[in-house]
Amino acid sequence: MKKYTFLLFFCLSISVLAQVKGNITDTNNTPLSFVSIYLDETVTGTTSNDNGTYVLSITKKGKHTIVFQILGYTTLKKEINITSFPFELNVQLEEENVQLAEISISTKDNPANRIIRNTIANKDKNTDKYAKYTAKFYSRGLYKIKDAPEKFLGKNLGDFGGALDSTRSGIIYLSETVSEIHFQKNPKKFKEKIIASKVSGTDNGISFNRAEDANINFYDNSVTFGSDLISPISTNAFGYYNFKLEGSFFDTNGKLINKIKLLPKRKNDRVFNGFLYIVEDDWAIYGADVSVTGAQVNIPIVDVLNLKQNYNYSEANDAWVLISQSIDFKVDALGFNFDGRFSSAYSAYNFRPKYNEDTFTNEVLSFEKQATEKDTLYWNALRPVPLTNEETDDYKFKDSLKVVIKSKKYLDSVNKKQNKFNLLSSITGYTYKNSFEKWAISYNGLINDFNFNTVQGFNVSLGGSYFKEQNDTGKWWNVGGKVNYGFSDKRIRPTFFLTKNWNDISRPRMTISGGVTTAQFNGRNPLMKLNNTVSSLMRRLNYLRIYEKEFAKINYSEEIVNGIYLATSFEYANRKPLFNTTDYSFAKQDKNGGYKPNNPSDVIEVFKEHEIAILNVGATFVFGQKYLSYPDRKENIDSEKYPSLNVNYTKRFGASNSELNSDVFTANLTQDINAGNYGEFSYNLRGGVFLKKKDIAFMDFLQANGNQLLFPLDRELSSFGLLEYYKFYTNDKYAEAHIQHDFKGAVLGKIPLLNKLNLHLVGGAKTLVMADKKPYTEYSIGLDNIGFGKWRFLRVDYVKSFHAGIKNDGLLLRLSMF
User: How far apart are CA 273 and CA 731, in angstroms?
Assistant: First the structure.
């Protein structure tokens, strides 16, 4: 073993010495970051860091030609003769002399338009040249914060694990990733295997610098960059951009490079600002230097996102390929002021890989064994972009600090600050943590479940839980309970639960619960307690309808294979009717006709108390589900290409009255489809059928989610906007459909003046069909992204409904998150 360790150390030492290194500055001696450095006639190289320092790995002595390339500066070719390693080479780059030829420019013959049209026409030709490839990918992520607040929402933020100095500024995140990537254009496939991953100050080293996230491709019509943006060489680019030829220059290979300025036609469109560099005759991308605002990508806390890309010519396949990329961003919101950068470098391209049917699977990310455990010597040999002094110091400081941070003494000192109890804790809640032993005791707080309804009056819950983490791979258990008390019905209702989770790969989880509680007659819970409290106290409208349930229940769920989830439960319950016990309200006694009885329907009689057993078996199929395999967990990615299907069988049995027993099958089909430049289309289809029509209890009917609120807090694609609660139900056959298209800026963004508001047009339709009722239909049109400045969280819809010849309409306000 010692022999192999020595050989590894020896090989790594040689690779560290076999280097060309130096500093890159401009003519004013200002360091230049993000300069691409590579051997001439290859696409293998490196990138300079924020201090302009670079390290290029070269293993052979002798004569070499090294190329230094960055947008805005003249590309430099430097011939060197290496006699010994390491070899130092410092260079200065001059600003690019971009010249505009004296040509006549008219509205009919804009040279920039000609260049862009040719580039669009040659997109497939250019990308076909690297329709398959493998490559090595390196990425570094860096977040820096300035003047961080000491508290946020009343919580002490601490020093971010020792990251902040006396001015509460410093690096709060630093990570690196080296991986192997496999790409195929048609059909589009991508796979990444992480060779090494490092995060400053942590043991697991799992960064989120993924190659697929960094795959920003302007050759696609829709470019994923924070949001889906219109590419300046999209097939419909001329509907969103004007173009201007700033000038041209020749690169070191004698190729004419055109610098094209992007001029968005409308300020708030999902488009880029900046410059695109195009190679004349090849009509390929040479580079990009663009930006977007947070408003354009619907990330309000972000001020601006900047993107730079450098391409290099590959003689191996006569193509221009991406070799480096950087993404910079700035955030200034809620008292936080930080900026960050993700820089990437691509090397070791192989444009003739041999793929087989096992090359690409649903696993799109995996980790090499011990990828997160590489030492400093390994990283120094592997890292293609050298660290800055600040980054080196951060690694040293946090790597030494992490031993202290994990110690009992340190964790106890942190917990001592976090565990302070104050006067508000009794109302808002409180958690006592022991981070060293990985357990916590929580108290829910009086406000957590405080509400009003006409059955219980004002009611409040006191509850708590104990959580214990058993390992770092998702094994934990949680036990707790609460006691609810209604001040009007003077009834105490206690409940308890015990939950066990075994891992974060397939997530096998079991919960045992029981006690006495109140439940809505519609098991889909169409009404939030907060909504009912406000409508009851302010308008004397008691929409909530509840019954009492004494129960014992066991649940189990697990992802049994990728994309197939099992969920089953068994419950035995005693169900009792409840009646109003108070008519208290801030509103007048006769407001809106006064409170209605707790009975959910004027047609259905109050059910009689009964006991019943309920077995539920369900499965969810996420077709085409991709996933990421981390060392300690599995993260699933929903497919945009295929829908998700949920099927469920419920058997109710053991009731004293056999008519209450029932068997019902339900199914749910959902999908969100990315329409690229035209927004997003979503649908939700739900249906069910009883094996036999019987006189069952009302809470066991199939029911539609209604709404009678101006400002509902429910999901748009699961409820009807103008339908009364509990109006439509059946013990026979049932189906409902919800569809919606959010056009983003595709429609309103093209209307002068209106486009300045950056509003999104949303259209939708819903229908409900039952065997024993006439169809109910709704159509809606709305505006989303309403707000001010960075904060755009409101949506308004105009809804029109049709049922049995009766028409109705109304306005609905929603938070955009719902």
Answer: 58
Structure tokens at 16: 């560290």
When pLDDT is cut at 50, 70 and 90, the band that residue 162 belongs to is: low
Distance CA 233, CA 397 (A): 46
pLDDT, tens only, 269-307: 889 999 999 999 999 999 999 999 887 777 777 788 999
Q: Is 605 exposed, middle or buried, given 0-12, 13-18 or 19+ CB atoms closer than 10 A?
A: exposed
For residue 354, give the 3-state DSSP assignment.
coil
Query: Peptide bond before 149: cis, by omega within 30 degrees of 0?
Result: no
Tokens of 353: 């890989």
**Which two tokens mark 156?**
């002490």
Note the residue count of the chain: 818
Question: What structural domains does the chain harbor?
Answer: 15-93 (2.60.40.1120), 128-404 (no CATH), 407-443 (no CATH), 444-815 (2.40.160)
pLDDT top residue among 391 and 226: 391
Angstrom distance (rounded) from CA 555 to CA 570: 7
Which residues, including other chains, have CB under 8 Å from residue 213's CB and lie 6 or more apart? none
pLDDT of residue 5: 35
CA distance 463 to 496: 9
Please report which helix (H) or strand (E) contains residue 668, including its range. Answer: strand 662-674
The C-alpha R_g of the chain, in whole angstroms, comes to 31
Whose CA is closest to 69, among 300, 312, 291? 312
Strands 19-26 and 91-93 turn out to be parallel
- The 10 Å CB-count burial string (b at 16+, else e) for 309-347 is bbbbbbebeebbbbbbbbbbbebeeeeebbbbbbbbbbb
